[in-house]
Design brief:
Blueprint lengths: L1 H41 L3 H4 L3 H6 L2 H6 L7 H14 L10 E3 L3 E2 L9 H16 L9 E8 L2 E5 L14 E10 L2 E10 L5 E10 H8 L16
Parallel strand pairs: 1-5, 2-5
Antiparallel strand pairs: 3-4, 5-6, 6-7
Helix pairs in contact: 5-6
């Protein structure tokens, strides 16, 4: 009789535990469903539960959470152009003074440049200095001009600049507007010999060039008044 009672008690306990486990499992499932519904309603669950498995396997955690890479600017392409110039550069070393001129459009009269051409020259000056070649900025005057608009030492007025500057070689080049961007032709030329001692080419995508050219002030077209005869 005692054995029967003991067996009945154990069965009752097991039945009670099973009932408790089922209750806990049901409550957990209901909580998970409610959480999923809230995420779906807010849209936050899309990236977590609807992300393609194949894409997840091919991406690291940093790529997933940091987003797309930053767009390359003009300095990236000028760095590559400078590396190509240095790779075939002759007669220029750490004791050879050089200068950099604005890059002009190939189909122009070489008398004017654009903001893109001027920025290419500025970027190249930085890259040339980094490799240890002395760069002379011939636009620097011998005096400071203090005005209400600011304080200046640079000028584009030829009469304000020094005539005798020990420049031996010049980094120069031109631009060709191409489908999808600008083709850059760069070279290093001797001032006296006119000999090309290095050359390189690069391509600037239209999106990179547009980011600079869009900030350039545009000259409004001259309006011709109509006069009644």
């Amino acid at each position: 009789m005692k054995n029967l009672i003991s067996a009945a008690c154990v069965a009752a306990l097991l039945t009670g535990c099973s009932t408790i486990d089922n209750s806990v499992s049901t409550q957990a499932n209901e909580t998970q469903v409610q959480t999923n519904n809230e995420l779906a309603a807010s849209g936050a669950g899309d990236a977590l539960f609807r992300f393609p498995k194949s894409t997840m396997n091919n991406k690291t955690d940093e790529e997933i959470f940091q987003g797309p890479a930053l767009t390359k600017n003009i300095n990236f392409y000028m760095r590559g152009l400078m590396q190509d110039l240095v790779s075939n550069l002759e007669y220029v070393n750490g004791r050879t003074p050089v200068a950099v001129t604005s890059f002009v459009n190939l189909d122009s009269d070489f008398e004017s440049s654009s903001l893109l051409g001027n920025q290419i020259a500025e970027s190249l000056m930085h890259e040339i200095h980094k490799v240890g070649i002395p760069v002379l900025d011939y636009k620097v005057t011998d005096y400071l001009r203090v005005t209400e608009q600011g304080d200046f030492i640079m000028s584009r007025n030829f009469n304000e600049l020094t005539n005798n500057i020990p420049i031996r070689y010049v980094f120069t080049g031109n631009l060709v507007k191409h489908q999808g961007g600008y083709l850059v032709n760069a070279r290093v030329v001797g001032i006296k010999s006119k000999a090309v001692v290095a050359s390189a080419q690069s391509f600037i995508p239209a999106s990179v060039a547009k980011a600079i050219l869009d900030t350039e002030p545009r000259v409004s077209e001259q309006q011709i008044p109509l006069i009644q005869g």
